[in-house]
Amino acid sequence: MESRYNPAAIEEKWQKTWTEQGLDKTVTDSSKPKYYALSMFPYPSGSLHMGHVRNYTITDVIARLKRMQGYRVLHPMGWDAFGLPAENAAIDRGIPPAKWTYENMAQMQQQLKRLGFSIDWDCEVATCSPDYYKWTQWIFLQFLKAGLAYQKEAAVNWDPIDQTVVANEQVDSEGRSWRSGAKVERKLLRQWFLKITDYAEELLNDLDKLPGWPERVKLMQANWIGKSTGAYLEFPIVGMEEKIGVYTTRPDTVYGVSYVVLAPEHPLTKRVTTQERETEVEAFIQEVSNQSELERTAEDKPKRGIPTGGKAINPFTGEEIPIWIADYVLYEYGTGAVMGVPAHDARDFKFAKEQNLPIKVVIVPPDNVELSDATSLQQAYTEPGIVINSSQFDGMASVDAKQAIVAYAEQQGFGKARVQYRLRDWLISRQRYWGAPIPVIHCPNCGTVPVPEEDLPVQLPENVEFSGRGPSPLAKLENWVNVPCPTCGTPAKRETDTMDTFIDSSWYFLRFTDAKNDKQVFDSAKTNDWMPVDQYVGGIEHAILHLLYSRFFTKVLRDRGLLNFDEPFQRLLTQGMVQGLTYLNPNKSGKDKWIPSYLVSNPDDPRDPQTGEPLQRLYATMSKSKGNGVAPEEVISKYGVDTARMFILFKAPPEKDLEWDEADVEGQFRFLNRVWRLVTDFTTQPREVHNQQTQLSKAEKDLRRAIHIAIKEATEDVEGEYQFNTAVSELMKLSNALAEASCKDSSVYAEGIQTLIVLLAPFAPHIAEELWQQLGNTESVHKQAWLKYDESALVADEITLVIQVNGKKRADFQVPAQADKAELEKYARESEIVQRFIEGKEINKVIVVPGKLVNFVVG
Known about the structure:
- There is one protein chain.
- The chain is an alpha+beta fold.
- The strands form 10 sheets. The protein has a 4-stranded parallel sheet with strand order 2-1-24-25, covered by helices on one side. A 4-stranded antiparallel sheet has the order 6-5-7-17. The chain has a 4-stranded mixed sheet with strand order 11-12-10-13.
- Helix 3 (about 85-95) crosses helix 4 (about 95-115) and helix 18 (about 630-640) crosses helix 19.
- The longest helix has 23 residues, at about 660-685.
- The two termini are about 70 Å apart.
């Protein structure tokens, strides 16, 4: 038996034993209630960082706890393995993406196993594996059958030097491609979309079915879906049959429309442009086409626009109004056109002032109906008010006028009420190699033909050249692209786009429930049994896209008859960031301002190693660029896995940011050493255990109360909001109570030692297992039932009664816990100490607080 706590030895020993015993395998005993604990799976970058360790530790504690509470637990892990970094590695280092990815996966799996997580590796999935993406492609075909996948022209970022499409994240803040440095252009390409907008209303309403999600995340999703109620209105174009359709949430302001604006790329733009305006309009369109969506819509950028020369008619007033084009209107948003109401919209007001366009007031504040003169307007009035200059609607409250004006528009044929969503259909096409190929074939006779299901997967070819230039590597492989049409046999071409990697992560949680099934995407009976995920843990950065897409996929697969539930994740925990001590030179800019901590020679007087300038110290999210990271393996080799876990759990509640502090890590190491000594002292020193009878001494009663308070409090902390930090605190209190106990030969003390180890097991699994075996147990501590507290043990026989005289504490002593007010006063009066303070004085009042204190107010 080890006399000293040696984490490395016991961690390696128990991880090996647990693997041999199959301790972490998923139990299929359906008589037990199920619990599905899931961490968001990682991208295989090659090494784990502290953020990963924190995420997986939180989930692991929950999984271990639930097993001890009698649940059959599914706790899997996999790899979100497609994506750009592997392709960049291929371009930069000549390593095939698959080789790079699988090597990283193997390395990270070893790191995860070294951390002792109770993961069932039999359920492992990798999204880049053909036996996974076969089913990703199959799901795409389900969307196609349901009319939820379609192609249309859409803008992409185009690198004119490399002649290739670049992702948004490959464009820098100046709009240049990170590889070639060229100014990125916007170009239209035919691309694939999924019709998520068909589910907008349900995705919004079903947020109410998620009480276990943070309100902040639900609000972010609701805002992203962006439901608004308004009107679709049509403005006839002078001299043409066509009309310009706009959507507005403010139909009450329509009498104040003084111009309309088209997106420069709107199909009507060229048609409404007059001959004399053609050259200027063409130049403006060309200029805007090179700007990213972000540049065009940025709040702080000046809004630019020019008139087309064309005119529209405001159907409500019959007035002719100019048609403009402007950079801030995007064809992909809404109808690709907006109406300009400068008096009642801040952006329109600024634009109209700059361009000298007319401003007409049609709503005034209810308490100041005189403010109808546009010339005196200093800013747009955007609040509700009273309608003026609006024909038969004058005098109405603007809120009521909205409905009345929409009803009038419908009656006159100018427009209709409409509910609109900010959410747009999901563009899933990527002109990349390392992703799941989209399983369709383009035939000159039959059009777009789905690849037959029996031919799936459409596998990624391996003989691929990566240059970072020209079209997608797949498009260059003629023997892969050219295939006969599966319907008519005519020479046809494969789709060369691959799918957005968010597709892969939108259903992986379903595959985990039946990961090895090679006959179907999953067995619905198994998946409906395990799903929904009971606890999902991951970063807040996935609050919108990943979680929204996963909810969308779940609803579509439900409607295809594969699933019988509406929502994939019952409870969601978004863990905080891990922050490291960071050094910043305020006189430098960009990446240079961060000074890696290993270059700071004197932390008490930190200075820039190059310039000698004093540095600022702060805590910031760990990252390579800031040089403030702490490698998990360093901590583990110095202190062990259990200490790292205990620090992560104790330092901050899971949802809060955690500041990495070596001194606090050291503190947890010392705590585990104390527990080790407590137990080894107990097991190695011969003692006669006595007092099996019911009559306990005061010391035993006090210790037993401490034991059951620890069980009660720790259970409450881990059950509700996962306050692991306070649960660890309860373990420390119990450890202190045991260390200070005077009844070490008692059966109560033995109960305390066992309790401490069982409660410690989910948090520090290796040391708990070792100490449990030292007590003479042969079955794993992780197979023990989680403890239940004894209500009667919590009741104290005696309490400490505080005695005050005129509000000042003068004494305290033990009295029976059941004593009533009169008895407490009697005990207090009879105390010798109190006698000294009240002797010869008149007692004006006696205040008795049952269970706490007696206060004598004397003259």
